[in-house]
Amino acid sequence: MRITQRALTANSLTGINSNLAALTKYQNQLSSGKVLTKPSDSPTDTNKSMQTRSGLAALDQQARNITDATARLDQADSALSTMQGLLQKAQALTTQGLNTGANNANSNEALAAELSALRESMLGVANTSVASTGQPLFGGVTAQAAAYDSTGTYVGVDGHPITQRIGAIEAIQVDITGTEAFGQQPDDLFKAVQDIAATLQASPVDDAALAAGLTKLQAAQDRLSTMQSTVGARSARVDDASALTTDRNLTLTAQLSAIEDVDIPRATLGLAAQQVGYQAALSVASKVLQPTMLDFLR
Q: Which CATH class is domain 72-257?
C-alpha cells in the first residue's frame, strides 16, 4: 500500500489537533475549576448534575420554609408567655377581691380598673402581628388587620390551618388561632376578665361570682399551657427538620462537587502529560514530513 505525502501530513495534523484538544481541555478545567462546562463534556454527568441541583433547590425552599415556621412559632410562644404573665396578675387581683374583710368600695373599684387595663393589654397581645407578613398572629387566615376588634369580638377565621412544608412529604401547622389559645366566645378569657371587673364594681360584691370568675381564669391558664406545649412540640419537629435539611444539603453539595469540580492534582498531571505529548507530536511531525517545493522556494 502506497502512503503518500498527503496522507502523512493529514495523519500528523490529526494527531497534533487531538493532542491540542486534550491540552486545551485540561487548561479549561484548571482555569474554571469545573470538569463540566457544557453538556457535551459528559451527558451522563450533566444529567446527574441537573438532578442534584434540583434537589438542592428543593432543600433551599424547605430551609426558607423552616426559617419562616421557626420565626412564627417562636413569636407565638413569646406571646403566649406574655399572656400567661398577664393572666397570673388577673388571678392575683381576683383573689384580692375575694378578701372582702380587707376591701371597701374604693379598693374594689381600683381592682376593677386594674383588671380592665389588664384586659386591654391582653387584647393587645392577642392582636400581635406576624413580623414577616403583618397578619394577625392569632387570626388564622383572616384578611382583617387584627384578630379581635375593639370590643373584644373575635374576627379571625378558624378551620383553615396555616402550614409550611418542612420536608419532602412533611408539612406542619404553624398557627394558633385566638379561639384555640383564649377560648370560644362568649366564654373566652377576655369576657371572663370583663365579668370579674364588673362584679367588683357592683355593690355588694358577689363573692360567688368572683369565685366562678377565678375558676374560669384557671381554666384559661390551663388552656394557655396546653397551647404552649403544642407550640413547643411543633418547634421541636421544625428543629429536627432543620437538622435533616442541613445534613441533606451537605450531602448533595458534596455529590455536586464530585460531579462538577475538577480534581486539581489529577488535572495538573494530565496537563503536564498532554504538554509533553503535544511537543513530542510537533517534533516528530517536523522530522517525518518532507519539505515541500514551497520550502525550497523560501
A: mainly alpha
